[in-house]
Amino acid sequence: MGLTRVLVKDGGFGTQMTVHVGNSVDGDPLWSARFNATNPAAIISTHLDFLQNGADIILTNTYQSSVEGYMEYLELDEEQSVELIRNTVRLAHIAKERYLTECYQAQLAIPEGYPLIIASIGPFGAHLHDGSEYTGSYADYVPAKEITDWHRVRIEACLEAGVDALAIETIPCQMEAEALVEMLCDDYPNVKFWVAFQCKDESTLAHGEAFADAANAIWDFLAERNAQDKCLAIGVNCVHPKFVTPLFKSLNGDRQIAEQIPLVVYPNSGEVYDVVNGWQGKEHCVPLANYVPEWAQLGAKVIGGCCRTYARDIRHIGEAIRNWNKLKKLS
C-alpha cells in the first residue's frame, strides 16, 4: 500500500458529528468517544458524510477511546471496554459498506480497496484529560514501556476488528512516537501506520523537540530496521495550517523529490481555541484547499482536516487534490 497518488483524509470527526448530535461533544472527558456507546448511528452517519464528500480514508472514532476512560466514565469493565473499541471499528466498516452500496447503485467506480479504514491512535496524554496531549509533559516522567503498554490494548482491539493501517496521531513528544514505532516494528511487523505530530509553531513539537529531528529519527530508525515500507507517512495534525509549510520545508525542503519523506497533514481550520469563548476567528481562515498544491509539492501524500473542519471542507480539499493529481499525471 505505497501511496502513489495524493489521498484525501476525512476531517474533524467530533466537529462533523455536531451536525448529528448538536454541540454536546466538547468538554466531555470522553469527547466524541462517548457516542460510540450512546449513539452508534451518529458515528456511522458522520463517517458517511466524509465518504460522500470524497474522503479516500476515514479514521475510526477511537482517538479518545481507552479502557481506563470507559471504565471510569461509562462504568464498563475491562472486557466491555475493549469490545466497545472493537465495535467502534465495526461502525466504520458499516459506513464503508453503505457507501460502497450507494456507489454501486449510482454506478460510480471506486478504486479497488478504497476507502481505507485507519485506526485513530491518539496520544497517551488524551486519556489524562488534562491538556497534556498539547504539551507532552508526561514524556518527562512516564516511562516509555508504560506508554506503549497503554497503547497496545487499543491497538490490538482495532487490529482484531480489522483496519488497513494505524494513524499514530497528535503525538506531542518524540519519545512517545519512537517508542510506538519501535513497538510496531518488534511486535506487529505486518501493520502499516503513519505518525502525525502535534506542533506548537513552525518548527517544534508541542514538547519542544525540533519536528525535523523527530521525523528524521523515526525515518532513520525504520531504515535500520528495513521497515520504511511499513510507514505510509510522517507528518503533522491538529496544528494551525500556517505552520505546515515551514514544518514540511524543515524536513523535505532540501531533498530531491525522489528522496522526500512521504508526508501526512491534517491541520485545524485555522480557528484558535479560547478556553472562555471557544473557537474564534472563522472569518479570517484561509480555506485548507488553498494550501494543497504547496503541501503536495513538499511531499504530502495524505491531506485532510482536524478540529473545526467539516465534510464540506473535505470536499474542497478533494477537488484541489484531484486537480493536483491530474497535473502530476500530465507532467
In short:
It contains 11 helices and 10 strands.
Q: What does the average pLDDT come to?
A: 94
Order of strands across the main sheet: 1-10-7-6-5-4-3-2
Question: How many β-strand runs?
Answer: 10
How helical, in percent, are the residues?
Answer: 40-55%
In words, what does this structure look like?
The chain is built from eleven helices and ten strands. α6 crosses α7, α7 packs parallel to α8 and α8 crosses α9. The two termini are 23 Å apart. The strands form two sheets. An eight-stranded parallel β-sheet has the order 1-10-7-6-5-4-3-2. The protein is 44% helix and 13% strand. It is of the alpha/beta class. InterPro entries: HCY_dom, HCY_dom_sf, Hcy_S-methyltransferase. One of its GO terms (biological process) is methionine biosynthetic process. It comes from Drosophila gunungcola (fruit fly).
What are the defining features of this structure?
single chain; 331 residues; two-stranded antiparallel ribbon; 11 helices; 13% strand; globular
Topology summary:
Blueprint: E1 7-8, H1 13-21, H2 35-38, H3 40-52, E2 57-59, H4 67-73, H5 78-105, E3 116-121, H6 144-161, E4 165-171, H7 174-187, E5 193-197, H8 211-224, E6 231-237, H9 241-252, E7 263-266, E8 272-274, E9 278-280, H10 292-297, E10 300-303, H11 311-330
Helix pairs in contact: 1-3, 3-5, 4-5, 5-6, 6-7, 7-8, 8-9
